[in-house]
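Budget justification aside, the reviewers requested a transparent look at the raw inputs and outputs of the sequence design task funded under Objective 1. We therefore reproduce one unedited record. The lines immediately below are the structure tokens for a 291-residue chain.
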């Protein structure tokens, strides 16, 4: 039942007999797949990885059918960052940044701005949105703030990412019970988990460590996979919307038409034959028929 070390999974754990729950997520192949066509500078990459782990943690605390988006917008080097996670943990993410202003510092990267968490669910109809300002020294601190204001649940989040992995840990005090020493202790231990441990220790070891001295139940959890909603069919729709004249123009100029997905940066390439299949053969000038 236990996950492969490094397997892409989100796993819930409980402290038996205490109103404390936790979630652990470690991403590896989904994290690599997300960046297959995008080459982010290190600080942007790590921020995106942390946001991805945070989106999975946020989705894992909800019962819903749909998609959750964490969107960061600010006047720092990273103007826009979006991390999406569906109820069945399919993830994708993208960051837009100003190369010249990048520095390995959260405040410089994000600047002044806000984080919006948007939940679009089949049951709810209208999307729900919670907003917290970009503040503090890390994305994890912002997410703590989100839980404190939006859900009014004491929560501690840890996030980390590097070239290989992205990971997150969340501990949360369940509603309806008084905050006690067990919660304080759990929080302290969660805070003490460092980035490298969060990324590379097993979920078993991390859950045991956070719940030390208490009976910890770790569940098998759910797999997490990268999936962008783009497809060749969708891109064909974009080409049709552009119109034959424009597409044929690009084809004449460049010998092919390349459309790149805004989200995952995957390039979709169409040659003359593909374009002909979309629009039919190029129009032939009509000549007068002679009887
Ligand atoms: Zn895509």
């Amino acid at each position: 039942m236990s996950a492969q070390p490094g397997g892409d999974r989100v796993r819930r754990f409980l402290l038996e007999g205490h109103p404390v729950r936790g979630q652990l997520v470690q991403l590896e192949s989904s994290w690599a797949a997300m960046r297959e066509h995008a080459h982010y500078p290190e600080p942007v990459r790590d921020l995106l990885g942390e946001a991805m782990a945070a989106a999975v943690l946020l989705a894992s605390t909800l019962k819903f059918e749909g998609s959750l988006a964490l969107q960061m917008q600010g006047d720092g080097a990273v103007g826009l960052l979006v991390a999406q996670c569906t109820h069945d943990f399919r993830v994708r993410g993208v960051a837009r940044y100003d190369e010249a202003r990048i520095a390995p510092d959260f405040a410089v990267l994000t600047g002044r701005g806000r984080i919006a968490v948007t939940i679009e669910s089949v049951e709810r109809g209208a999307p729900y949105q919670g907003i917290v300002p970009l503040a503090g020294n890390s994305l994890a601190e912002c997410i703590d703030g989100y839980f404190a204001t939006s859900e009014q649940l004491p929560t501690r989040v840890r996030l980390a990412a590097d070239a290989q992995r992205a990971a997150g840990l969340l501990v949360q005090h369940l509603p309806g019970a008084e905050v006690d020493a067990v919660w304080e202790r759990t929080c302290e231990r969660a805070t003490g988990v460092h980035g490298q441990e969060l990324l590379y220790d097993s979920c078993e070891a991390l859950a045991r460590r956070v719940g030390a001295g208490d009976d910890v139940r770790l569940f098998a959890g759910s797999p997490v996979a990268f999936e962008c909603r783009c497809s060749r069919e969708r891109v064909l729709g974009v080409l049709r919307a552009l119109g034959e004249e424009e597409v044929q123009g690009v084809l004449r100029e460049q010998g092919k038409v390349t459309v790149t997905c805004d989200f995952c940066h995957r390039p979709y390439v169409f040659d003359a034959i593909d374009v002909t299949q979309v629009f039919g053969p190029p129009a032939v000038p009509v000549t007068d028929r002679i009887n």
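The two ends are 80 Å apart (CA to CA). Residues 1-5 have pLDDT under 50 and may be disordered. Computational costs for records of this kind are itemized in the attached budget.
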